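Batch job 17 of 40 flagged for manual review because the log was empty.
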Amino acid sequence: MKIDIKEFTGKCSCGRDHQLVVDDVILEEGALKKLPEILSKEPYNQYKNLVMVCDDNTYEAAGKEVEKLLGGIPVIKLDPTNLHANEIGVAKVKEQLDPIEKVDCMIAVGSGTVHDLTRYNAYERKIPFISIPTAASVDGYVSTVAAMSWYGFKKSMIAESPILVVADSRIITDAPMRLTASGVGDLLGKYTALADWKITNILDGEYICDR
C-alpha cells in the first residue's frame, strides 16, 4: 500500500500550509523486494552512491536482504551492545562513513536508534536518507529531529527526514514483541502530548490545529 502523502499536506482548515519532507511511504508485506524497482525510478534514480546503516540485529532482520537486492552496497554495521543515539553513536557511524567516497544517500535499516544516528549524519553531510523500519517500536521514523542524549543531556537535534519509507510488514511482524510494546507506549504518549498542546493553546494562545 502506497500512502497518499497529499492527504497530509497542503492548505488546511486551520489556515496553515502543512508540508512533509517525505515523498513516498510504502507499507505492505513484501515491500522490501520492491526496493530496486523503486530506486530505479524518479526521483530516486539520481542517487548512485548509497550506503546502508544498520546494527548486527537489523542486518539479520532486513539489512542482509537490502545488501543483496542492491548489489552489495557499502554497509555500516554497528554493534548493538550499548548502542545509543548520542555523540558516541554518531562518531561510530562517522568513523565508518568518512572513508567511503561519493556518498549521496544513506539508508537506515533498523528502528529508533539506527534512524536517529543515520538522520543526524545525513544532516551533517547535507544528503538525504531512506528509511527501512524493522520494528514498530517508535512513531518518529519521518521526524525532522533526532532524539539524542548529547553529552549527558536529552536534546532534540535538527536532522534529516527521510525522502522515502519502505516498511515491510512481514519484517515488522517478526520483530520482538517488546519492540512493538515500546511503539504502543510511544503512541499513548501522544494523547498526553495533545492534552499539553490544548492546555498551552488555552493559557498562552499557542497555535493549534484540530485536524
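Reviewer: the log was empty due to a logging misconfiguration, but the result itself is present. The CA atoms of residues 34 and 166 lie 9 Å apart. Unflagging and moving on to job 18.
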